[in-house]
Amino acid sequence: MNDIATPTAPRVGFISLGCPKALVDSERILTQLRVEGYALSPSYDDADVVVVNTCGFIDSAVEESLDAIGEAMAENGKVIVTGCLGKRADVIREAHPGVLSISGPQDYASVMDAVHAALPPRHDPFIDLMPAPRLGAEDYADGVKLTPKHYAYLKISEGCNHRCSFCIIPSMRGDLVSRPVDEVLREAERLVRGGVRELLVVSQDTSAYGVDLRYAEREWRGKAYQTRMKALCEGLSELDAWVRLHYVYPYPHVDGIIELMTARRADGQPRLLPYLDIPFQHASPRILKLMKRPGAVERTLERVQSWRAACPELTVRSTFIVGFPGETEAEFESLLDFLDEAQLDRVGAFAYSPVQGAAANALPDPVPEEVKQERLARFMERQAEISAARLEAKVGTVQRCIVDAIDGDLAIARSMADAPEIDGLVQVQDGRDAGLRPGEFADIRIMGSDEHDLYGEVEYND
């Protein structure tokens, strides 16, 4: 990252951990730092203070966060901690009593106050005629980005109203707080105007967007939109960019989103990417009840099949937990049967592990660790076969792709079915010779596949 202040400006190091929602928090803090004249340091040695944005969702994330704080303390000594683990200040203080400040997620003001206390901004009477502004949410569209310039995460809400027994996110990020739809659409518009070609919509529960605001109506581009998922997607589909939905719960009103995925722009491309990231977590009604998962779980398979019937090119990715307390072998086998029937495109899975503060810790009949790991291996083996077959079916087709990078002679791209970081890639064998550049769209003829990625050659590039 380039410096964005004068050579004499105070310098802040920054470590960002966790999910895309935490990454958006980091971008907002970094943008405010830039507005107030701070420089960003890529090394501990050159930093006057270090900010660590932590994750605290599962035990491995807590350990990673504590390790990052410890490294920053050892290498620099002046450390400000924020993020989800900040909600457990006692854990941080016990491990690292010398940190300067601790705050929770989305608490940008506390982070800036801590930076000001540790490292006051340098005053220039010839320049600083007005105090630095506190930015509004949509102002961050023009700010620091931690993603490549051609895609960006668009966070539409904070928190969650569900109380899943394995999850402690509501205790860290609170109940659902949706952003007004016009604010989100204006931010998206400015991102696209600034060169973003793909918008990744993120939240804790995208399907519940706007329920806390009673779906309040707001105006954008002279048209009224409700603060609800479908209306938001309708607005986003008016922009010249891919729009990809994450963290969608399979409520009935998701059916209406499929209509936008089948509708076409003037250039023949979908108005909304035919892609849904839906955390199903399990297939057993009893286990899902123990998990306190929302929705009519008995209709999940029927709903996926109806979506595919309406939109054959739809990609469905999901996550699952195996070895949840009380899970029987028969219930695990029902999960494998669900995979066979649902034929999901992309799947991630985790062996259940207790998270401090989660209600599931008190459930009876924990699954032995060796059984959990054996089930996880069987699960991933079954899904690998499904994913490989679904990718192989694309050999010989032409896929619209976005280029992420050039690596030697290859272009590393992604199809409509591939979100960055979590899904597969399309390796374009003649990418450099064809003159592809990051951020460009290209039509790629698929020549081969494996269980993760596709391989192809350029058919046409914009």
Q: Output mean pLDDT.
A: 91
Total strands: 20
**pLDDT < 50 runs, ≥5 residues:** 1-6, 125-131
Query: Counting H and I runs of at least 4 residues, what is the number of helices?
Result: 12
Lateral strand order in the biggest sheet: 2-1-3-4-5
Helical amount: 25-40%
End-to-end C-alpha gap: 29 Å
Rg measurement, Å: 23 Å
Give the percentage of residues in beta strands. 15-25%
Largest sheet: 5 strands, parallel
Structural class: alpha/beta
Q: Overall 3D geometry?
A: globular
In short:
Keywords: 4Fe-4S, Cytoplasm, Iron, Iron-sulfur, Metal-binding, Ribonucleoprotein, Ribosomal protein, S-adenosyl-L-methionine, Transferase. This protein has 462 residues and is an alpha/beta fold.
